[in-house]
Write a structure and sequence with these properties.
The radius of gyration is 24 Å and the shape is globular. By secondary structure, the chain is mostly beta strands. Strand 15 (203-209) and strand 16 (212-217) form a beta hairpin. Helix content is 9%, strand content 33%. The strands form 12 sheets. A 4-stranded antiparallel beta sheet has the order 15-16-19-20, with no helix packed on it. A 4-stranded antiparallel beta sheet has the order 21-22-23-24, with no helix packed on it. The protein has a 3-stranded antiparallel beta sheet with strand order 1-4-5, with no helix packed on it. The longest helix is centred in the N-terminal third of the chain and has 23 residues, at 2-24. The protein has helices at 2-24, 413-423, 456-466; strands at residues 45-46, 49-56, 59-65, 68-70, 77-79, 83-87, 104-109, 114-119, 132-136, 154-160, 163-168, 172-173, 176-177, 181-185, 203-209, 212-217, 221-222, 229-230, 234-238, 244-245, 265-270, 276-281, 285-290, 296-301, 306-312, 315-320, 333-337, 357-363, 366-371, 375-376, 379-380, 384-388, 428-429, 441-442.
Amino acid sequence: MAQLSRNLARTVGLLVVFVLLAVANPPAQAQAGAGYDDNRVPFGSVDGKVQALHGVGDQLWVGGDFTTATDADLVTTHDRLNLAVFNFNTGDVRSLAPQPNDAVKAIVSDGARRVYVGGNFTQIAGQPVSYLAAFDLLTGQLDPTFSVTLNGDVNTLHLDGDDLYVGGDFYRVDGQRYLRIARLDAATGDLDLGFQTNPDTTVRSIDTFGDRVYISGDFEELGDDGAAETRIWFATLDAATGEPVDPDLSFAPIAGGENPTKRGIRQVAISPDGSSIYTGDDRNRVTRWDRLTGEMIWSRETEGDIQALVVEGDTVYAGNHHGLLAEYDERLLFALNAADGSPDNSFMPLLNSYHGTYSIHLAQGALIAGGEFTTVNDQASPHLAVFHGPGWLGAEPIAAPDGDVGCDGQANIVDALLIAQYSVGNRQLEPSCPLDDPAKSVAPSGDVDNDGEMTIVDALLIAQCTVSIPNIACPNP
């Protein structure tokens, strides 16, 4: 009977959404055109909730609360605790297995050498590293040059040039009192003592534009006791100091009789051109604001909390639970026209889970979504879905230095020996760093004389470079 009721609710919900679409969006209405095909491409999966996604090079990093990851065939499984790295092109699980001991909730990368991972963990890659860690993209190993000590969970990360913004539930950074948001040196992890905000409770999202930092969460005050300023769930900060400045968006606190679960803003995103602020809140609304004045431009109400939000061109992508236009309409990942907030019906995947989508990421012409769903358009897609757009041309691997076939970030005599082994058939070629099998493989960066193949000649040229004998093919002349 319960299953029958759920199926009936789903059917009614779908019928209602189609009626609403016909009324709200007649054929004459212009659509921005999301551009992404709403049929998922074959890709791997995980066996639990996905909360964080980041694509960099040909690596897709996936974090959350799970124990296994599965290849694109959705059959071959691998032990992966709370963090998995997939081949962005094939959808298969890569060999890297950091195994953090608790949930991963935020991932960001500089796109060249580092990826940062934050969450609830106190151990990762076999090391006692708590809440925030940096990995080398070429080696796949923890980066020992980055170090910071936090005493609480990390919910969000944002990278702006050389600055890494960290938000969450911590209240000490490197032993000093820093409440829930901090700015670190992205290379070293050193705390920026000149930037301090001290929200009174959780920070959930951070974005930047120019000399402003934008944060959202559950907080209602910023600053120290006796000198606190009221900022309900959102704040604009001076990037130089961390102090609150205008605009202060007009969010009202929880009112008498209002469900306390409706407290807070989960996501803030600045439009690429810097004209607008977008917020996604627990009152089920996606809202667009003028970034300079704080004036509301439009607000779209949905059937569930807005749990994920990204902006690209003329389109806003959002994820929630419960539905977009009607309860159980399965539109838990949807596109809105940035001009007026109307649904962009060219992108309408249907997801089967009430709790829906927790994370959305755009990378290299692909849209990636993660959450608690297990099917997309009735096709198996456990907790992870990848959608290609017309801009997808395949993910380019992270570029290793010329001659660095061992993926350690430099070309040296070791690489010369590895190329010599490869040239006689004792090693195999892998498409990119990090190597899935460092004991038997090499990366394809050893053709330093550009003749189309790696040979003993390339090994000799690299060996000469390491003892300061310059040559025209030397990767580091």
